[in-house]
């Protein structure tokens, strides 16, 4: 993922998509260029985090305009740290789900995060898109497997032709966890720093994508940790409850 200026915002983009699968368009918002005051400065996209609603609405407008996304072409999941997924054809906020799948062109799917991983899966041949919110809850509930499985069953996609992106999230060095949470993950995802347990959720996402048939060479990681980079990203772990959210926006181009 590299950063690009777009209408005054710094957005993450994946140039590899232009070569690999130009029909997929993905933008990652960062915290710069918005209206919010500290500690939500400045492009906070999340409501219900303590920021002023007027600022969040303005920030959303800025992001949607910069990415060419009309509000009536935006679908969002409520995100409840589970593994339920909705197949959608229309804009709107979908309750009680953490993942969205669409075959609809020009419908942007959003994932909201501040440490959890946004995972985008795109079946290039069949033109099917999935956007998943993967925190430790969704990860252990199997949201990645469920997403790919659903794409297979409903649209007979071939995972070998899929492209997957793992957006910015918390790196294992920043992600200290308790014994109970660590024990829900295989030993290889548990790291030890000076006797403290840490969890490598990014590797988990990558391995899950591979285990479900996506070739390693078609999985791209953003290379950014939300907690390591306070200038660009919000981090719930680093900043506590009073922090903002970013959106990852993905859509199938109408071409
Ligand atoms: Zn980090």
Summarize the structure.
By secondary structure, the protein is an alpha/beta fold.
Shape: globular
Strand residues, percent = 25-35%
Class from helix and strand fractions: alpha/beta
Q: For the terminal residues, how far apart are their CA atoms?
A: 23 Å
**H/E series, N to C?**
EEHEHEEEEEEEHHEHEEHEHE
Largest sheet: 7 strands, mixed
Widest sheet, order of strands: 1-2-3-15-8-4-6
Helix content: 10-25%
Count all strands and give the number: 15
Tell me the quaternary state: single chain
Question: How many domains, as an integer?
Answer: 1
Classify the fold: give the CATH topology.
Answer: CNF1/YfiH-like putative cysteine hydrolases
The CATH architecture can be named as: 4-Layer Sandwich
Task: Walk me through the topology.
Layout: E1 2-6, E2 9-13, H1 16-20, E3 24-29, H2 53-66, E4 74-77, E5 85-87, E6 92-94, E7 99-102, E8 108-113, E9 117-123, E10 128-134, H3 136-141, H4 143-155, E11 162-166, H5 179-182, E12 190-193, E13 196-199, H6 201-211, E14 219-221, H7 236-239, E15 246-252
Parallel strand pairs: 4-6, 4-8, 5-7, 11-14
Antiparallel strand pairs: 1-2, 2-3, 3-15, 7-10, 8-15, 9-10, 9-11, 12-13
Bound molecules: zinc ion (ZN).
